[in-house]
Amino acid sequence: MAYISKFSFPLVFVLAVALLAIVTTMAAAHESRDAGDFSYIVGWETEPAYEGFPNAVSIRVSGPLDTTAGALFDGGALQPDQKYSFVFGTEFTGTTVPYHNHLNPELGGTVMVTESAPEGDVEINITATGYTPADVMVHPGSSVVWHNIADTVQAVHSGEGQMVMAGDDAMA
Q1: Domain membership flag for residue 3
Q2: Domain span holding position 104
Q3: Would you list the DSSP string of 94-137?
Q4: Each residue's pLDDT tens digit, 49-63
Q5: Is 170 within a domain?
Q6: For residue range 9-22, what is the model confidence (pLDDT) as tens digits?
Q7: How many domains does the chain have?
Q8: Whether residue 98 sits in one domain with residue 118
């Protein structure tokens, strides 16, 4: 009995260290970190990873989806004959603001805010094929009113979307 007890502590210690090494190695193969509202998870596509077998790195980022990041305005979905307006204040003086239709991102135009434009609101009609007029000039403090005159739901959002600008088709 004394012979077994003499080797039992070192044997248990070696087994515990080996088990700890195996468990921590497998646990470290997939890691997660949180940064603000986002969670980043990095690991192997197939785990455990073995040398000599094809594998890939798996990277997953999850967090809140913000579809209006950086947007100046979002008119949402406009039903037929519905209107949406946005006031271009003095902070927009000297800028050109692009806009587009989220339901058809190739349709869009621009609003140029300049002191040389006449004072007053400007109306842009939305049709199934585009905006009329697509490009307008407004005086600072004036509103642009988008009016859906199409028979279907349309939309207006700030930003470029996938608009084809003049001269772009020559490059295509």
Answers
A1: no
A2: 74-163
A3: T-EEEEEETTEEEEEEEEEE-TTSPSS-EEEEEETTEEESSEEE
A4: 777 888 777 777 666
A5: no
A6: 677 777 777 776 66
A7: 2
A8: yes
